[in-house]
Predict the 3D structure of the following.
Amino acid sequence: MEVISLKDVTQRYKKVNILENVNLSIDQGDMVGVIGQSGSGKTTLLNLITGFIQPTNGEVIYYSKIHHEERSLTKNLNKIKKHMGFTPQHNSFYPKLTVMENLLHFGRLYDLDKNTLKDNIKNLLEFTQLSHHKTKLAEHLSGGMQKRLDISCSLVHKPKILVLDEPTADLDPILQKEILHLLQEVNDQGITVVFASHHLESIEKICNKVVIINDGRVHSCGSLDDVRAPFLKDHFRIKLPKGANKEHIIERLRGLPIKNIIQDRNGLIITPNHMEQTMTQLMEIIKDEGLQLNDLHFKKASLNEVFEKIVGGEE
């Protein structure tokens, strides 16, 4: 079920379009990764989704599950913001307050009653592994724990949607992995998660949808397979044993529904037009030529390869 949609949204600043004619939808329970080059408009998109800025043109729509109706985010911001959590790229907590004091402060901003807030904080401290650090000043926490605190402050009111801007920026690989695992656990609880990141491999691992922004426009939006489809095709790699008649094998392969054959040092890379049909016929060639099945390798195009194609203008 759709929870947020942007319809013909343009965001302009000083007569310059930061984002132009954006149309996309986010469904309940999605884990959405937003990627783009620096200055492409990722943060602007997140600010539009959370209602921090209003679109110059177009509309951001929030779907109310309770009332079974669409509501304009701009016109109903005060009602809808209680369903949103936002974690900016730079820490938003107060460094001179303790972990507990920060959570109490952010919880009160949402007018939570005392008992509800107390229960929420207790559960959050356990969930984010901050229980043993609740009396520490935020500035004395490690980088990873500070990020956990930032995310906790965004979750203290139990939002339906969590939006994050570069949640793993400036963290080492181990801490990045920990924060991504935390986001997966948040998503497993039914919370829709939308985050911008430059770590494409991480997005590829945990997201079910991706939004690619290029030159102020949403170039692609959808599942990873949908986004990959128009660009790099899945391809096979066949390792040829010593003494194999490479020219003969290539000649046979040219009769298959394939787009391209590339020779490299270890064998042949085959890009098919029709995966299923190619695979069936390829197995026959492997059998006829006496090749071993473990000499066949299948590789999907990575999100990084697709992104490079898009920003490089290769359609």
In short: The chain has a mean pLDDT of 88. The two ends are 31 Å apart (CA to CA). The CA atoms of residues 237 and 269 lie 4 Å apart.
